[in-house]
Amino acid sequence: MIAKLHYLTQGNSPQEHLDHLQKACTSGAEWVQLRLNHFSDKKVLKYAEEAREITEHFQTRLILQDHYKIAKQMKADGVHLENTIASPSSVRKHLYPWQFMGATAHHLTEAEKLLLQELDYLYVGPFQNTNSESSTKPLGLEGYTLILEALSTATPLFAFGDIQLEDVNEILATGISGLAIDKAISNDFNSIRVFHELLQASSTQEQRHYF
To answer: Do you find a cis peptide bond into 156, omega within 30 degrees of 0?
Structure first.
């Protein structure tokens, strides 16, 4: 089962990523993505194995960003494809059948292409972008609404990109399945509980409406 809240680790060093992962697990995170993009495979494997010890203790899902061969080697719960040039279909052949695989789309066309491949979930965004150097156009609520209306898929779609607690209800109202959060959680790990409550409230409302 794919959790509705994903924590994306942040840090200036692998150890800081690991410290943040530990705090997230302690605070109730059910799904964490370890993002060690700019480090050697040897270092990624070392810290991923340490992360695995932490997440197993808390029964938290551990996803590695991009490093799919390492994800298989150390039996992480899955891999998220963000910057790799490999296609999801080719990556799937390297993974165990039980491992999750997700990817990131920044616009409708990209989402449509990725959903044709063997993904378990898809990140769509960014919701907003505070990085002035980024060329990626933020989608905002209107963008999510248009994309959700255009796509016909059972694959869970997750919003990401500088999402704050006050944004959650409006984002979920577009039909988004869940949230991938980095900064807001890194700044306050106690916010995990509040994110969970908001996501659970949304799920309950959907069930009432359905029945």
So the answer is: no
Q: How many domains does the chain have?
A: 1
81 three-state secondary structure: strand
d(C-alpha 2, C-alpha 192), whole Å: 16
**Cβ 14 vs Cβ 6: under 8 Å:** no
Where in the sequence is the domain holding 75, given as residue range(s)?
5-210
Please name the amino acid found at residue 97. Answer: P
Q: How would you write the pLDDT of the chain (211 residues) with one tens digit per residue? A: 899 999 999 999 999 999 999 999 999 999 999 999 888 999 999 999 999 999 999 999 999 999 999 999 999 999 999 988 889 999 999 999 999 999 999 999 999 999 999 999 999 999 998 665 567 899 999 999 999 999 989 999 999 999 999 999 999 999 999 999 999 999 999 999 999 999 997 665 544 444 3
Closest CA to 5 of 195, 148, 210: 195
Question: Residue 22 maps to which CATH number?
Answer: 3.20.20.70
